[in-house]
Specification:
The complex is a heterodimer of chains A (about 1050) and B (about 450). With about 1050 residues, chain A is mainly β. Chain A folds into two domains: about 100 residues, Immunoglobulin-like (Sandwich), CATH 2.60.40; about 650 residues, Maltoporin, Chain A (Beta Barrel), CATH 2.40.170.20. Helices cover about 10% and strands about 45% of the residues of chain A. Chain A contains 13 helices and 58 strands. In chain A, a hairpin with a 4-residue loop joins strand 40 and strand 41. Chain A is globular and about 100 Å long. Chain A starts with a helix and ends with a strand. In chain B, about 45% of the residues lie in helices and about 5% in strands. Chain B contains 16 helices and seven strands. In chain B, the strands form three sheets. In chain B, strands 2-5 form a two-stranded antiparallel ribbon. Chain B has a two-stranded antiparallel sheet with strand order 3-4. Chain B has a two-stranded antiparallel sheet with strand order 6-7. The chains are: A mainly beta (about 1050), B mainly alpha (about 450). The interface between A and B is large, with 79 and 88 residues. Strand 36 of chain A pairs antiparallel with strand 1 of chain B.
């Protein structure tokens, strides 16, 4: 690895100091026959990868240097244009006028269900190129979408390798059903189960982790009813469409990428050291009336005599372990990617292999991805084309415990600084036998009696999760006659997750027995859709197209667990397990499956390429709903008007483009567990008998009336370009009103059941989005571009029927459903102040009175975890061949409930505490953040035995702005690359999360905890419980093209 | 026309493939749809057995331990949940009490489901149907009774018992309900038990019988301080001659032996049976911690002193001194044993106290007490004298009751009963009717706007 670093550093050094005189370019406008600009046209130097795309008003600039070049200009729906141009010592102006050809099998491109047409959309779509995604080094590709589009909320999980992000499009519309957008990859819906492994080891499954970002051509984020409407029933939370790369040009092309970097934590917990902890604990003891030395967890007990307590205290003072340093360090990252593209006369193929080794800053934790992809295209005669996308990936996750499960979570909680990592002297039992020798791991018990020591666990536990994923899709495009396309797409997404965990005997202090578990999940998700699309010019300049289609999806998930108990201490590695004769106990879970069936039609009209109308209707059925409610109807309609084409604006000098669009439609959500509708019984397959007789009993209440959650979606937008797009501004407004919101309500225990799925709620989301791009310079040598987006969202839970806030809960008993408040509201006992005389916390009742008695009946709405405003700002500078880009992201108005703080800054207990606790009350008259220290929870009015202090004292403002990514890159000039027989060479340096501006006193204001289920994910996105911090990574990247 | 035919072709293809709505039916594997579950008399019997199964899980010590923690019989326990109960500070997050409460209603729902679905069952005879309904109502009453005793203030807390009782589940449905009053709660329990008494068979294996219903009615009326009815029902059972006082003090003999005084109880099946079944976990787990750790639950010094007023009492053997507390030895070295819930000793002591309260033939009461004392001290060694007064009878009955039932979770409700009767009762310095003496309901009950919880704390 060090050799690699040296080579990379040397290369950068050379690059930065290469002085090259190279700057000539060809620029101009690409238009149609009527001089209307064509956005998105490709202008390429034939036979190279040097190319560019025209902007919204058709402008392009292509850097070439001097020489003679054969240019190729391509645009959808237009005939390809070739021209040879000679460039001397100065820039060349060259406009291109393309003649509109009709769609052919050669130039047709499919996105979603339909043909991608080169015309303005009536919907709200944000497009992000694969290049922009691959440029940001994140644990999983979707995290790179952060800040890139208005209305798209991306919160990156945490620094754990393989962790996923939380994505919300235009707010949260669902309560208990999945609130994530629908992911479509190459035309088929992906498996996107975040809870396939539950919450094992405090890490949810990330279904996107196996996607190689280098294979992504582009990502479309579809937000409103017009854009997402064609996925109607599953589009309530938006749609993200991923398109992978294909070969587009003739001949062979090769790309090679190499990256390396290091991972460090973006912030560090500030736990107390031994002397601080002992001082705090002693003070609490004395405050409570204790005399002499305080008793210490795992060293002495409250009932010990004074001498024993003293000895323990003095012994503890001799050890000072920084458990954070024992669990957090530096991770190395390394990745390489190779792809080849071949474009032939009839067939073409894209091929790639990638390897990515991503160690996190959590010691012992890594995620390796090995991926391969082949995307061939076959021309089968004049009328038929077959596209295949075949990919296979293995994700190998070397696991460590985190959060509540241990590891860094232990370091932030029960790992007291006076515990040593290893025994330093020999200990004996009462019979005089040696129990521990120096160098043996020191184990302690947490308050629940669990044996702990995060270093021992990391070094001895063997724990891997292996995910194998095959996503294959095929698409037949049949063009029986001009303007008619019949497209059949089929795909399978096959996901196998195997988790192996070997718990060695050493952790079992009582019986000395270990265990092995192999947990397997297999998801087979098949789907196909077939569409027919016909377009026609009905009248002069009035074009119309009609698409009809049908779709079917079926997904089945199976569960198998093999368990071997009672392993002795000879079994320390996975290989030892194979040879162990102990019997495996196999448990085969009940598979669950769901299916989805849809019929749809879409009608599209455009007059003079100025007025656009689109209408669509879907009728969809889901197996998850009751017999009478399986099907739902989802219509949508949208309008677009290019105002700048009207005579009164056509000649404007300042406004070169203006479009107004509006859409209205119904979208839906059915993302709930497969069997919620059924009332079920069990005959106790586990063999339960009572009084020697078998039993039969109800297990699930069931709801045969369960139906679609639906959202009325209204959106309006104005897109404007000023001064030939030197400035573009898009302003959008939307209102989403969801009804029959699916809620998994807690049933009163007296009904005999615990929960029940019902269509109960109503949710409102409304907001505005602003996207603007400024090209500051016309100077070609120096470019400056600012791209910024801003979103404001108002979220309100309008109704929860006849239920109370406690009917649906999330987080760590902190989040509830409150009418009139946002989803994700904190319902807590409101802390008001510390009484200066007594040092006791004073709470505020909902009526505004003050009390020192903590009581659940005085819980109240105290704040919520949803950001009011968020966005991103990308500033790019280009100078000659250098490019510097900074991406800032921000989030304003959200609160975080720091659920760890209620123990780290609450009652002094067997948890270590944070530095902030030093600002505590010590004597009457003190003004302090925290109250009189105590070991007794009843001092704070808490019930005896209940130190979980759910008060608003630990709810913090969590607005932040962070430098998400800072990247410097250098593109080698053609002269240089030609000499090296390359067509392109680029090298870059980047840093993620370099700094964050925030008032949040906890670890990180960007937080996504491990969740229990989709409801928890919707309800408490901004609750943190021992959640690891974000990653700060330093990366170097090299890309070569041949 | 040709274009249209292409569309028709495409749509036809789509519809043809997908016309079948069966594609949207995936009933879960490994579970039984409710509609298919209850078809035969055997299905019904299995559902009924599952109600007993729930009770067996509740009375393996789980419920009794909670009751014992509320009383003065045990010392301060180890464990967060137990502390909350002991200190009368349960809240709606307390897992132990929440789980126990929920279990009672599982049983009630199952009983209600059975009664709701009788008509679906082919070939069910009238006599089986009547018996099953009687058993279901016995279990429903049993569950409601045990819930109302500790989740509501006792009978007598208000003059007309209009104070809040519990949720009464008469039907199998999910409808959230409000709490009924204590008067309504007891009326419903009695209604169920009277039906059960009228329809249950004399013998029914280990399941509920006519005498089980009578015994339970005696306990319910006694809890209401209705001494006349309590005495009548207790006498019905005692006089049936079907049950005899065991010679030994051990009420929990190791299986398969059955304590002969058991009218209704929980059975375990020891190794050797076809289906090994242990329903004793919460007793042995909490009272008999092995190894170095002290048990979670131990008897209080106060109970030991109370028992030791007469050091010749053999029941002192149940208590073993340990650091100022006393280990409960009643379950020592046992795994499989049966747990009597309605049994002769208690019914005799109930009858004795009732007679003492009502006046009447005190010799019957004195004999009942001496039946218990003879076993604890040896025949005639510590008998209550024949000329004892009513007050002496009552005092002796109460004393024997407390000692006989130590660890069985019965004493706290006697203290509450006495408080409800108007006596000045304090339990570990807290008045019998302070708010925390009624456990808080689980969080889930508060999901209904109709529900009103108990006030918390206020006892210490």
């Amino acid at each position: 690895m060090s050799k690699l670093y040296k080579t990379s550093v040397l290369t950068v050094f050379i690059a930065l100091f290469s002085v090259v005189s190279w700057g000539q370019s060809i620029s101009g406008v690409v238009t149609d026959e009527e001089n209307r600009p064509i956005p998105g046209a490709f202008v390429l130097v034939k036979g190279t990868s040097n190319g560019t795309a025209s902007d919204q008003v058709g402008n392009y600039t292509l850097k070439t240097g001097s020489g003679t070049f054969e240019l190729e200009v391509k645009a959808l729906n237009f005939a390809t244009f070739n021209k040879t141009i000679t460039v001397g010592n100065s820039d060349v102006k060259q406009n291109f006028k393309l003649s509109s050809g009709s769609l052919t099998l050669d130039n047709v491109e499919i996105v979603g269900y339909g043909i991608e047409r080169n015309r303005p959309s009536t919907g709200s779509i944000a497009k992000i190129s694969g290049k922009d995604i691959a440029a940001i080094r994140t644990p999983s590709f979707e995290a790179a979408l952060q800040g890139q589009a208005a209305g798209l909320q991306v919160s990156q999980g945490s620094g754990i390798a393989g962790a996923g992000s939380l994505i919300r499009i235009r707010g949260t519309a669902s309560v208990s059903a999945g609130g994530d957008p629908l992911y479509i990859i190459d035309g088929i819906p992906m498996t996107q189960d975040y809870f396939l492994r539950g919450n094992s080891g405090a890490l949810n499954n990330n279904p996107l982790a196996t996607i190689n970002p280098n294979d992504i051509e582009k990502v479309e984020v579809r937000k409103d009813a017009a854009a997402a409407g064609e996925y109607g029933s599953r589009a309530a939370n938006g749609v993200i469409i991923i398109t992978t790369k294909r070969a587009k040009e003739k001949g062979w092309k090769f790309d090679y990428g190499l990256n390396a970097g290091i991972s460090t934590p973006a912030s560090t917990p500030n736990m107390l050291n031994t002397s601080e902890y002992l001082r705090i604990r002693q003070e609490a003891w004395e405050n409570d009336g204790g005399t002499g030395y305080v008793w210490l967890p795992n060293m002495s007990s409250a009932t010990d005599d004074a001498a024993t307590r003293k000895a323990a205290y003095l012994k503890a003072g001799k050890t000072d372990t920084d458990w954070i340093k024992q669990t957090v360090g530096r991770g190395n990252k390394y990745g390489t990617n190779f792809s080849a593209r071949y474009g032939g006369k009839k067939h073409n193929v894209y091929f790639s292999v990638g390897y990515d080794d991503n160690q996190s800053f959590l010691l012992g934790n890594s995620y390796k991805r090995i991926s391969a992809r082949v995307n061939p295209e076959f021309r089968l005669g004049d009328k038929l084309k077959l596209n295949l996308s075949l990919s296979g990936t293995r994700g190998l996750n070397k696991r460590v415990d985190a959060a509540w499960s241990g590891g860094l979570g232990d370091a932030m909680s029960n790992a007291l600084p006076y515990y040593p990592v290893y025994h330093t002297d020999t200990t004996y039992n009462s019979s005089g036998q040696v129990v521990n020798k120096p160098g043996d791991y020191f184990y302690w018990r947490d308050e629940f009696g669990n044996v702990k020591n995060p270093v021992a666990y990391r070094e001895q536990l063997r724990w891997t999760t292996i995910e194998d994923r095959v996503i294959n899709t095929g698409r037949l495009i049949y063009m029986p006659k001009k303007n008619l396309f019949i497209i059949a797409t089929g795909g399978m997404d096959w996901m196998h997750i195997g988790e192996n965990k070997l718990t060695p005997a050493t952790f079992d202090l009582s019986n000395g027995q270990g265990s092995f578990s192999n947990d397997q999940r297999l998801v087979r998700n098949y789907s196909y859709n077939i569409t027919a699309e016909y377009s026609k010019e009905l009248l002069p300049e009035l074009n119309a197209s009609l698409l009809v289609g049908h779709e079917l999806q079926h997904s089945k998930t199976e569960f198998i667990n093999d368990y071997i108990p009672n392993l002795d201490n000879t079994v320390a590695e996975f290989s030892d397990v194979q040879n162990n004769p102990n019997t495996r106990v196999r448990t085969v879970g009940n598979p669950n499956q769901f299916s989805f069936l849809g019929f749809f039609a879409k009608y599209n009209m455009n007059y003079k390429s100025k007025y656009f109308l689109e209408a669509s209707i879907r009728r969809d059925g889901s197996s998850r709903f009751g017999v009478n409610n399986k099907f739902g109807n989802f219509p949508s309609a949208s309008l677009g008007w290019i105002i700048s084409e009207e005579d009164f604006l056509k000649n404007s000098k300042s406004i070169n483009y203006m479009k107004l669009r509006a859409s209205f439609g119904l979208t839906g959500n059915s993302d709930i567990p497969a069997n919620a509708q059924y009332a079920l019984y069990s005959a106790a397959n586990n063999g339960t008998y009572y009084n020697q007789n078998p039993i039969l009993y109800p297990t699930q209440a069931g709801n045969p009336n369960l139906k679609w959650e639906t959202t009325k979606n209204f959106s309006v937008a104005l897109e404007t370009g000023f001064w030939q797009d030197r400035l573009t501004v898009t302003l959008e407004g939307y209102r989403k009103y969801s009804r029959d919101v699916l809620m998994n309500v807690s049933l009163p225990a007296s009904t005999g059941f615990t929960n029940f799925w019902d269509n109960v709620g109503q949710v409102l989301n409304e907001g505005v989005e602003l996207t603007t791009v400024v090209n500051w310079t016309k100077n070609k040598k120096f470019t400056a571009r600012t791209s910024a987006n801003f979103s404001y969202n108002y979220n309100e839970l309008v109704s929860i029927g006849n239920y109370t806030p406690d009917a649906v809960s999330g987080g760590t008993n902190d989040s509830r459903v409150l009418v009139g408040k946002p989803i994700g509201s904190f319902y807590l006992v409101a802390f008001d102040h510390i009484d200066a005389q007594s040092g006791l916390p004073v709470y505020r009742t909902p009526q505004g009175n003050y009390t020192t008695d903590y009581d659940n009946s005085i819980r109240n709405y105290v704040g919520n975890g949803l950001p009011k405003m968020m966005g991103g700002l990308t500033q790019t500078f280009g100078w000659k061949n250098f490019s510097l880009s900074a991406l800032f992201t921000y989030s304003l108005g959200a609160r975080i409930f720091d659920s760890s703080a209620k123990r780290q800054l609450g009652v002094v207990s067997s948890w270590n505490m944070r530095q902030e606790i030093l600002d505590r009350w010590t004597a009457p008259g003190d003004q302090s953040t925290f109250g009189r220290l105590t070991l007794d929870e009843t001092t704070y009015g808490l019930p005896d035995g209940f130190p979980w202090w759910n008060t608003s004292l630990f709810m913090y403002k969590a607005s932040y702005m962070r430098l998400r990514n800072l990247a410097l890159s250098y593109t080698f000039p053609n002269e240089v690359t030609k000499r090296m027989k390359m067509t392109g060479l680029n090298i870059g340096l980047s840093v993620t999360n370099l700094f964050t501006i925030t008032n949040f006193p906890g670890l990180d204001p960007e937080v996504v905890r491990d969740f229990e289920n989709a409801q928890d994910r919707n309800l408490s996105p901004n609750v943190t419980y021992l959640t690891p911090m974000q990653e700060r990574s330093f990366n170097i990247r090299l890309n070569a093209n041949f | 026309m040709k274009k249209i035919s292409y569309f028709i072709l495409a749509i036809g293809l789509a519809l043809g493939i997908a016309s079948c709505e069966k594609m949207l039916e995936y009933p879960p594997e490994g579970a039984i749809l409710a509609a298919d579950a209850l078809k035969t008399p055997d299905d019904a019997q299995r559902l009924l057995n599952s109600c007993y199964d729930v009770i067996a899980n509740l009375f393996d010590g789980k419920y009794q331990n909670i009751c014992e923690l509320m009383s003065d019989n045990v010392a301060e326990p180890n464990g967060l949940d137990f502390n909350a109960v002991y200190n009368r500070e349960t809240n709606f997050f307390t897992p132990t009490t929440n789980g126990t409460y929920g279990d009672f209603y599982y049983a009630i729902y199952r009983c209600n489901s059975l009664m709701k679905n009788f008509d679906l069952i082919d070939g069910l005879t009238d006599s089986d149907r009547n018996r099953m309904e009687a058993e279901a109502r016995f279990i429903r009453a049993f569950c409601h009774f045990n819930v109302v005793k500790i989740w509501a203030q006792p009978y007598g807390y208000t003059a007309n018992n209009s104070h809040l009782g519990i949720i009464l589940r008469r039907e199998a449905n999910n409808t959230p309900l409000a709490r009924s009053t204590v008067a309504e709660s007891y009326a419903f329990i009695i209604e169920d038990l009277e039906y059960a008494y009228a329809n249950l068979p004399e013998t029914n294996g280990n399941y509920a019988t006519k005498n089980a219903a009578a015994g339970l009615l005696a306990m319910v009326y006694f809890q209401m301080n209705n001494f006349v009815n309590a005495e009548q029902y207790a006498s019905l059972v005692i006089n049936s001659g079907l049950y005899t006082m065991s010679d030994t003090l051990d009420r929990f003999p190791v299986t398969p032996a059955m304590n002969p005084e058991t009218v209704f109880g929980i059975v375990s099946s020891n190794p050797g049976a076809d289906h090994v079944d242990q329903r004793t976990d919460n007793f042995i787990g909490n009272y008999n911690a092995g190894g170095v750790l002290p048990p979670n639950l131990m008897f209080s010094n106060e109970l030991y002193q109370f028992t030791n007023l007469n050091s010749a009492d053999d029941r002192l053997m149940w208590m073993q001194s340990s650091s100022g507390k006393y280990k409960n030895r009643r379950f020592e070295n046992k795994v499989f044993f049966n747990i009597p819930i309605v049994y002769l000793t208690e019914l005799k002591l109930i009858r004795a106290e009732c007679i003492g309260e009502m006046g009447g033939d005190l010799s019957v009461a004195i004999n009942d007490i001496n039946d218990v004392r003879d076993r604890a001290f040896g025949v005639g060694l510590n008998d209550l004298s024949a000329g004892s007064t009513s007050a002496e009878v009552i005092a002796a009955a109460r004393r024997e009751y407390r000692i006989e039932t130590m660890g069985e979770g019965k004493w706290i409700n006697q203290l509450k009963r006495m408080g409800g009767k108007g006596e000045s009762i304090y339990v570990r310095n807290a008045p019998w009717n302070c708010p925390g003496m009624a456990l808080q309901f689980p969080n889930s009950e508060f999901t209904s706007a109709l529900f009103v919880g108990n006030p918390e704390g206020g006892c210490n």
